[in-house]
Design a protein that fits this description.
Elements (H helix, E strand, L loop, with lengths): L16 H18 L13 E6 L5 H12 L3 E6 L11 H9 L5 E6 L4 H6 L5 E7 L5 H15 L6 E5 L6 H12 L3 E5 L15 E3 L2 H7 L2 E4 L15 H8 L3 H5 L6 E3 L12 H4 L6 H20 L3
Parallel strand pairs: 1-2, 1-3, 3-4, 5-6, 5-8, 6-7, 8-9
Length: 307
């Protein structure tokens, strides 16, 4: 059996194109399982997984939890809001206490970039990064790229634009790494204030005009404006952002070709995208949600064999 080259999934930057292809092939098999009447397999029956979320999350946590239960793993859920973290307990103490309960894998979301990397050097369990600050969100990038592969048959040669708040987005960085490793061309588009200074060093195109970006691409991955991560104002108002960078059905229909619309969620309807665009035939947003469970099943299954 093929194996991943890593013991932990900390970021797309750390894995190879072969790792990504292996995850995709494994996810193909699990997607078949998810479409059967009995959606469970006993693959991780003796494995205990802790979902350790120091930051609020609904979709990612539910997707991981469902993936774990579909694989028959034992699941512990931990959220910092009602925990000893509020009393001053350190990250390492918190996780060591969880591991003392004989946990094999930790799925972790944290507001500090690099937190999963720090843990991976101090504990024996396999770690899956479910988002660390504004750094990376590897499973989101894997499911996004998997959804493009599903739509077009392959990722290589496709033109993908990531639109919106690139500066505060861990999804953008992970997507750039994943798409480039699989041979796609990547462009970022948004207000200059929401584009990081280093962005061109990643080998991506930069476009400030949303219409030009859409005319260039095959796929547009639309990000939400992350107001909760912004300590200062990067644009005058949400209405103005929507006016210049919002995507609606009228804009999509005016293009000289059909493109695919994606969104990692949650959607701010009427800000970065209107309902008529998000729910149109262009959109594969619900496919992304479905693929998220299969991708996370594949990641957990492959990492469990590296324990």
């Amino acid at each position: 059996m093929q194996e991943l080259s890593v013991r932990h999934l900390l970021g797309i930057k750390d894995i190879t194109a072969q790792d990504i292809q292996l995850i995709f092939e494994t996810a193909d098999n699990f997607k078949d399982v998810l479409n059967r009447p009995i959606k469970k397999v006993p693959s991780l029956r003796d494995i205990t997984i802790a979902n350790v979320f120091f930051e609020n999350s609904t979709r990612t946590r539910l997707s991981f939890e469902l993936a774990e239960k579909r694989l028959s793993a034992d699941v512990i859920n931990f959220s910092s809001s009602g925990s000893s973290v509020k009393k001053g307990e350190t990250l390492l103490d918190t996780v060591n206490n969880i591991l003392a309960m004989k946990v094999d894998m930790v799925v972790m979301r944290h507001s500090s970039p690099g937190a999963p990397h720090y843990l991976s050097r101090h504990i024996k369990a396999n770690i899956v990064n479910a988002g660390d600050g504004t750094h990376e969100h590897p499973t989101q990038a894997l499911l996004d790229t998997f959804s493009i592969r599903e739509r077009y048959g392959e990722v290589a040669g496709k033109k993908v634009v990531i639109i919106g708040d690139i500066l505060h987005s861990r999804v953008a960085l992970s997507n750039i790494f994943a798409l480039q490793k699989l041979g796609a061309e990547v462009m970022v588009c948004g207000p200059a204030t929401l584009l990081p200074k280093y962005i061109k060093s990643l080998g991506v195109k930069v476009e400030l005009d949303v219409r030009k970006a859409l005319e260039w691409c095959d796929v547009a991955n639309v990000l939400r404006i992350q107001l909760e991560r912004q300590q200062m104002k990067y644009f005058p108002s949400l209405r103005e952002y929507s006016l210049y960078y919002g995507i609606d059905k009228k804009l999509l229909d005016s293009l000289n070709k059909e493109i695919t619309i994606m969104h990692p969620g949650p959607i701010n309807r009427g800000v970065e995208i209107t309902s008529d665009a998000a729910d149109s035939q262009h959109s594969i947003i619900l496919n992304q949600v479905e693929n998220g469970v299969a991708i996370r099943m594949a990641v957990l299954y492959l990492l469990a064999s590296k324990a």
